[in-house]
Amino acid sequence: xxxxxxxxxxxxxxxxxxxxxxxxxxxxxxxxxxxxxxxxxxxxxxxxxxxxxxxxxxxxxxxxxxxxxxxxxxxxxxxxxxxxxxxxxxxxxxxxxxxxxxxxxxxxxxxxxxxxxxxxxxxxxxxxxxxxxxxxxxxxxxxxxxxxxxxxxxxxxxxxxxxxxxxxxxxxxxxxxxxxxxxxxxxxxxxxxxxxxxxxxxxxxxxxxxxxxxxxxxxxxxxxxxxxxxxxxxxx
Length: 236
Fold this sequence. Notes:
Blueprint: E1 7-12, E2 16-19, E3 26-35, E4 46-52, E5 55-66, E6 69-82, E7 85-89, H1 99-105, E8 116-117, H2 122-138, E9 142-145, E10 149-152, E11 156-163, E12 170-180, E13 183-196, H3 199-209, H4 211-235
Parallel strand pairs: 2-13, 7-9
Antiparallel strand pairs: 1-3, 3-11, 4-7, 4-12, 5-6, 6-8, 10-11, 12-13
Helix pairs in contact: 3-4
């Protein structure tokens, strides 16, 4: 019988992240083991972990200076942009897979599948995609660490990925890949539910389920607070 592929047994420190008022971010520990079908330690492999947040459509506009004024110029639409994207690996990706495999499994911010739409030339598309990734990186929402996975005893692995305070709520997927000799030999997926709780959850659900009433209350509160502040300063 030929050699069979190993099996991934992944786990994550939190399957639910609660976003409350004053939330400053959190750190997720992704860990697990790689075993061969007989239950023994699998050898000669690398680990890559990809954590992605909910996808959303985005229109990116390019600014141009015209007559001393910044105006909107070209734009590009992307249909499926991860709200959060992080990659951790046990060694540099170029050392373990070729570029085609890295692109298929999104092993890095250079390989995120953004699903552009509309007619646009390849050079402009590359420029817009690079600008979008750079913007997300500066916001702390896209990151990669090619020394971020540690493997111990030839079987156990772990990676730490930080979620910043400005993360989008929703279901996050953590995909773990075992790579050997340039080939992905095993993969597994776990999920993390990032959701608002408390008053923030009430406000979010109210805005989605009762949009008209939410808008009216917001307007009334704004007018009332403005009027009250005006009266207070008039007395002072």
